[in-house]
Amino acid sequence: MRTDRKHPAALPFLFLSEMWERFGFYLLLAILQLYLTDAESGGWAMDRKVAVDIFGTFIAFVYLTPFVGGLLADRKIGYAKSIIIGGLLMGIGYMGLAVHNLTVFYLSLALICVGNGFFKPNISTLLGNVYNDPAYISRKDTGYNIFYMGINIGAFICTFFAAYLRNSIHWGAAFMAAGIGMFLGVAIFIAGLKHYRHADVRKPEQPGDMPLGSIFAQVFIPVLVAGFIGWKIPGNIFGSDSTDAFIFACLPIIYFFVNLLRKASPADKAPVKALLAIFAVSVMFWAVFKQNGTALTTWAQFYTDRELPAGVEQQARKLYLAENVTNKQDSVVAYDKEFKVIKNDKGQPVKEWGKNVYLKNVAPEKMPAQGASISLINTELFQSINPFFVIALTPLVVALFAFLRKRGKEPGTPTKIAWGLLISSLSTFMMVAAVIVCGNGEVKASLWWLFGCYGVITAGELLLSPMGLSLVSKLSPPRFTSLMMGGWFLATSIGNKLSGILASMWDTYDNKVNYFLVNFLLLGFAAGMIFVMLRWLNRIFREHTK
């Protein structure tokens, strides 16, 4: 292997594979709530509370299945085969969403969840293994930052494809594009196999390791039983049957990690304990961050002034990046003052226009005349703001830490994560200010409030999310690195589900200021906890990553 380059030859292939995989995944996330609630152009016309519950449950299971995928890759399949299997399953799932059948829809989401379980933890682990070479190990954090930028290039471009395809053809075309992107990512990964085949090393069972059969018997069977009990238990303990089932199903896995800590060797106990502490506080970050596909999408769709400037309106229409709404009776679905679809006694969307009916997100003073139309920015395009900031800020973050590294002042990975949480918490104040300025929805808010919110939380994200992946790779005991990577994604999963629970409460807050203040309290508490533990975490990090 050559050692005269700053980064290994494997990085471009893994970068591009992840970029196209995330293209498909974030395309789906950008339009999923819109598709579920759409009542005009072939969506499912679901109530928003039902839609965000489905969204939260889906992204929760997307990040829960890596626990299984990481374990199987560690012990049986290997990383490369797992990545290829996962990518193919996800591609099939995306294309299945193009079929407008509810059973096929749920089966397709299930395929995506399973496929992500095989793909996501193992490509991150494979990257870490490549950087374990002494020639590159000092640049592992930077490697993960670059890798993370690849994720966000895919996330940035996908929304433009989504808007173009659903405006010019149909929702199904956007889902097909997601599948094609996934298959392209798999092809690129296979093309680069020779550069990381050496890092695809399965971990044999060590004395004291729980056999794979025992893990399935003691963890996954209890997971299924607990999830079934949660689904069937009378009433709703946590707001919905799906939430009850998910939380109950998580309990055996949480117990597994606690038991893993209890049985760990003295040498492994400290790093495992530190990782579990990081996992716990990261839950709150994901609970707030993943509301970009739910609560912040609702804000963009109904509370933000999305009218296109006259100078770009015609070009946006030609590129099918504008949502055209015509004020014509019997052709426009009606919304009430809470921006919920008005339905008749048969549950069908009402198409009318009147004093108490709202037209999409058009401010009253900008309402087009009868028969006229207005062009709005597609809601999903706002989902490109976060990846735009990731792409723009990543070189600055990498340069900053390179500058500090040369002077021996680069903070440890736990310190970066702590500051990431603190900065992320401040993003909620942008939305508090937006609510106050726009009179709690009485006036449509400027889109720059969302830019500000995404800009601040992205700065925090860059110090937390890629650093979390890097920390797991550095600190995990070698024989279950992928298993601990699955633990990181378990924490992400729980946070994602919590994001759906929080978003489902949107309509219960008359004053949206209080909604965003709750988010601040959650992130602020998590940041406070990690700063309290920071000296201990940094000591363990120094002792176990030399």
Describe the structure.
With 546 residues, the chain is mostly helical. The chain has one domain: Growth Hormone, Chain: A. 69% of the residues lie in helices and 2% in strands. The chain has 18 helices and two strands. It has a two-stranded antiparallel ribbon. The protein is globular. The two termini are 23 Å apart. The relative contact order is 0.15.
- The H-and-E topology, N to C, reads as HHHHHHHHHHHHHEEHHHHH
Note poorly predicted spans.
none
Integer average pLDDT: 85
Radius of gyration of CA atoms, rounded to a whole number = 23 Å
Short structural description:
This protein has 546 residues and is mostly helical. It has helices at residues 10-37, 48-64, 66-77, 79-96, 102-130, 140-168, 171-191, 193-196, 212-232, 241-263, 266-289, 295-303, 310-318, 385-406, 413-437, 448-475, 481-504, 512-544; strands at residues 322-326, 373-377. It has a single domain (10-199, 265-302, 380-544), classed as Growth Hormone, Chain: A (Up-down Bundle), CATH 1.20.1250.
Write the topology of this structure.
Layout: H1 10-37, H2 48-64, H3 66-77, H4 79-96, H5 102-130, H6 140-168, H7 171-191, H8 193-196, H9 212-232, H10 241-263, H11 266-289, H12 295-303, H13 310-318, E1 322-326, E2 373-377, H14 385-406, H15 413-437, H16 448-475, H17 481-504, H18 512-544
Antiparallel strand pairs: 1-2
Task: Tag the structure with descriptive keywords.
546 residues; two-stranded antiparallel ribbon; mainly alpha; globular; 2 strands; Growth Hormone, Chain: A
